[in-house]
Amino acid sequence: MTDSIVKLTASPHVRSAESTIRIMWSVVISLVPVVAASIYFFGPSAILVLLASIAGCLITERLFGSRSDSLAGSLADGSAMITGLLLGLTLPPGFPLWMAFLGGAFGMAFGKIIYGGLGQNIFNPALVGRAFLQAAFPVAITTWPAKTQQWWSLQGDNLALPFMSPVVDVATEATPLGNLKFGDEPVVTPLFDLFFGTTGGSLGETSALLILLGGLYLAFRGHLNWHIPLSIFVSTFLVSGLFFVLGISQFPPLFMLFSGGMMLGAFYMATDMVTSPVTNRGCWLFGFGIGFLVVVIRVWGGLPEGVMYAILLMNALVPFINRATQPRLFGTSGRMKEKKGDAQ
Amino acid sequence: MKGLLSFKHGVHPPENKDITSGIASRRFPFPEEVILPLSQHIGIPAKALVQPGDRVERGDVIAEAAGFISSSVHATAAGTVKSIELWPHPSGDMVPSIRITVDPNSTQMQRPRIVPRWQDVKDEDLSKEIGRAGIVGLGGAAFPSHVKLNPPKDQPIDLLLINGCECEPYLTSDHRTMLERPDDVYLGIRIALKALGITRAMIGIEANKPDAIEMMRKTVPDDLDVSVQPLQVKYPQGAEKMLIKAVMGREVPSGALPSAIGALVQNVATAANVAAVFETGQPLIERIITVTGRGIRKPGNWVIPFGTKLRDVIEHCGGLADDAAEIVFGGPMMGLGQANLDVPVLKATGGILVLSKDECKRQDILPCIRCGKCLDACPVFLNPQLMGMLAKAERFEEMVAEANLNDCMLCGCCSYVCPSNIPLSQLFAASRTQLKRLSSL
What we know:
Chain A has 14 helices and no strands. Chain A is mainly α. In chain A, α2 (32-42) crosses α3 (44-64). Chain A folds into 2 domains: 19-173, no CATH class; 175-326, no CATH class. Chain A is globular, with a radius of gyration of 21 Å. By secondary structure, chain B is of the alpha/beta class. Chain B has 2 domains: 1-11 and 117-362, 3-Layer(aba) Sandwich (Rossmann fold); 373-439, no CATH class. Chain B has a 6-stranded mixed β-sheet, sandwiched between helices. In chain B, strands 2-8-7-4 form a 4-stranded antiparallel β-sheet, with no helix packed on it. A 4-stranded parallel β-sheet of chain B has the order 11-10-9-12, sandwiched between helices. In chain B, α3 packs parallel to α5 and α10 (384-392) packs antiparallel against α11 (396-403). The interface between A and B is large, with 53 and 83 residues.
């Protein structure tokens, strides 16, 4: 009989098969249909923009994100890949590649690595990247060229040289949100078009259906906290419904739900585990806040779209939400004592 | 499964009970030597009554309870006391233990003992008899049963809850007890009810043991007010507070004992062994122990005399498989890892689990991604994510004052679910040790 037992550990001695790496990569996998659709709708431009933003993220993470004390920054965890994909999906198809690359690099560096890498950041890095691009290149990021006739031709000046503004020599087309808000004659895009994606918009914003499917897959696998998208939808619907009924806004509630970055934001951005609350009650609050802010920004803001800022603003509140929604301790009627310090 | 009673949160680890649940228990051969630590229970170690060279018969008391919360120890095999010395204990410590060289020629019949008829014993004296027999809770904690059956007078008990959950994966010893000794379980319930001066009992059994549920239902004595309650399969349902929540729908107040809400929980194996005390006069000297896991060649359920060395158990069960990786006393969720094959099995040892490499893979630890799965798993509604961060920062006092570390049962649910493989409950156990050390300075 052998006396060499190789292991001596403290209990529990078994673990679930769930792993952070697996969660991250299934998020990537769930985005495959959305990516495929964006390629179908926008041709090679979609591939190029996505690759540029992914490259920006991966290279930055590899160069600056590795830490000796953990596996963070090893790329294998898939988190940098997700950031790159998600950022790419929020960009217009004709976006210059150098800008997309820069956005990825900025989002990674200043949205994540600067805080200490995976798990430490406050704001969703993809949205930090996009916010940076929105501030730095407001024209390029809101230029949606009308669809070209040929699938294989580029959707705009993707290949603009670094530090050069893109030359837009093609006709542009307004997005459904821009159409309704800033159009000479406000048009409500039919829901059918919004749902299946035959509208103008950013790469991944167009087909609500595919994002919904991807999100449901993740929720079913337990890789996404369904409280967040549900509460966002409920609050968006209620708040915009109220404004619509009162005649304050011209956005019908269903249009609100299926247009712009709503689906992508609710299922993929707001649900980023690192930057959303840890408690389910907190997730409800978080989602309600996002829905409310989205409606407010869309109705009164100077921008056609408000999902990004709504999520970033609520990200900032997450530590407070966590603190306020600590679970009730078993066998007591009260909540846990208020947290001091900066443990979150 | 749904619709059955349970508690909130908890986890569903793979059960793996089919390895041994169908194997009837058999008597384990007496080893050449038994090692009986003076501390096999919670509380003050027992005081040895024998000297090296003394001849003892099976069932003789060899160490007596040394205080109220203490328990006596009996010879589990006839033989000669070789020495009383420090010996490796499953807890990892060295503990004073009585070594008995087993007489190979003994029939191992128990020395006849005069036991009063339980019906004739006064209610309040029953627990003394139980204490004399060295009975402790066999669910794992090994709390002396006579103390438990003497609850504070200001907290009257009105329900006896019998714990047949056996929520730890792999283990099947309680399952076999219910199948093989249902009448003993019911006699044990009768005696406990009489000791407590109450009439009502309930048996909680998880739904993954339909044959045990059926057996217990079939054998309920007509004159006993006992109901058998099937429960959802969920870990840690066998924890007292969770079982009470599942069956009674009430939460035991934080920091209090179940008696605070009128409940007393006893394990089925404990009940069966209480019965044996009054039926045959047999003190607690052996129990059904599940030897299981993919790392042992011949898994099974055995009636093993306490003090049998781990080495002997493994040898008799076909030895270790080639890919055996870890030996655990108890279940995989809360059991104690063993480093020494000379440790003896104890009263609290419900199972000996040998995990193969595949069953306990080492996984890399990643940073916390604040997914909140640990909060959704914690059965007492703690925030393990926050506690884990405090533990890593060595802010132990805050863990107690602000994150309620003292309410943690160390059930391991948080560690089990953590996708980043952060050893949360291990950190909490270590933090408690640190706190003890700090407070004793």
